[in-house]
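Reopening this ticket.

The earlier resolution said the output was attached, but the attachment link was broken on my side. Pasting everything inline this time so it's all in one place.
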Amino acid sequence: MTSVIQGSVILESLQVGTRLSGLNLRVREIYRFRQENPGPGQPGLWGVLEWEADEADAAEIATAFSEVLDQPGWYVDFRSDRETFVCSRGASSVIAGAMPPGARRRWLTPEACRSRSSTGPSDAAAQPGRQAFAPS
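Inline output:
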């Protein structure tokens, strides 16, 4: 049986003009809602695409999202049973297993994410100094 990753993307987080194609995403749900307290520069209405994919496609999906997310502060995260991927513009982090309290994520370049092994990212690809954040 193939391992599955599940994630979601806020459509407003994508740069204007973005076209993603060729990704093997299976749509689970699409919905729209009013954000009651949007942050500075954030829209009041959000559309969300919830999806799943085969875990074997995780690095390709992380790379694709890291290349099209808008700035500042937008990110996409998705999970398998073993790892959590967090993608922001130009960087992705891969966390193997559960993160202990206070742990920092290791940020990877899209190239490092593409070439990571199935056991996790290389420490050589880590970019110290990037701020970690906890996805909700």
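Reporter confirms the inline version is readable. Residues 4-125 form one domain. Strands lie at 4-10, 26-34, 45-54, 75-79, 83-88, 91-96, 107-108.
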